[in-house]
Specification:
Elements lengths: L1 H33 L2 E7 L3 H9 L3 E8 L2 E9 L1
Antiparallel strand pairs: 1-3, 2-3
Length: 78
């Protein structure tokens, strides 16, 4: 009888974990589908310009040398 009770408890826990996991995955998928990005690029920015971009919500994601200059790529949620 103890084995049957233990098996029922284990089964109930597994079912709960399965359904809770599926709910979390569905919510995460929904958020991922809703989030879209817009991008902006620029070259040769000074610190003041970088601060202005940051104040506008742009996040710097790439800086790469371009000859003697630098090339910047920014993103922000749409």
């Amino acid at each position: 009888m103890k084995h049957v009770r233990a098996a029922v408890v284990v089964l109930a826990c597994l079912l709960a974990a399965f359904f809770l996991g599926r709910t979390a995955d569905a919510q995460q998928d929904k958020r991922a589908k809703q989030l879209t990005w817009e991008y902006r690029d620029a070259a040769n920015l000074n610190l003041s310009q970088l601060n202005t971009f940051g104040a506008e919500g742009w996040e710097l994601v790439v800086v790469t040398p371009y000859g003697k200059d630098y090339y910047y790529v920014f993103k922000r949620p749409k």
